[in-house]
UniProtKB/TrEMBL annotation:
Keyword set, alphabetical order: Lyase, Metal-binding, Zinc
PROSITE patterns: CENP_V_GFA
Transmembrane segments: none
GO MF annotation: an example: carbon-sulfur lyase activity
Protein name: GFA family protein
Keyword presence, Phosphoprotein: no
Keyword Isomerase attributed: no
Family the entry assigns: Belongs to the Gfa family.
Amino acid sequence: MNETGQLHGSCLCGGVAYRADLPVSHASHCYCTMCQKQHGAAAGSYANVAAAGYVVERGADLITEYASSSHARRGFCKVCGSTLFWRSTQAPDRIAITLGTLEPEYDGPVQRELHTDTKPAWLPHR
Ligand SMILES: [Zn+2]
Ligand SMILES: [Zn+2]
């Protein structure tokens, strides 16, 4: 991990920038069909951090939150569509930030694969 004790990230258009305090409790690849739809990809990849340490440094007004279920909120940039976070109203002290928006590249372990029953068959086979 970096020396600052923080993760930094931004969206594709650069309008949104954020930081989050370490530590990461766990990171995951989630293959649920909602993550596949929202990310347009095989999985949503996230690092779970404390909500209190998550700070939007730029572009808070560009973040739209979509309620994908009764408790889940998915934040994205309304300009470029980058997915930024997943959070649950049932666990407001935590937030899951997207690994793909982190700069530099996330260098921690990914401990969990979720909803592997809907993991797409079109992923490359190892
Ligand atoms: Zn953007
Ligand atoms: Zn998911």
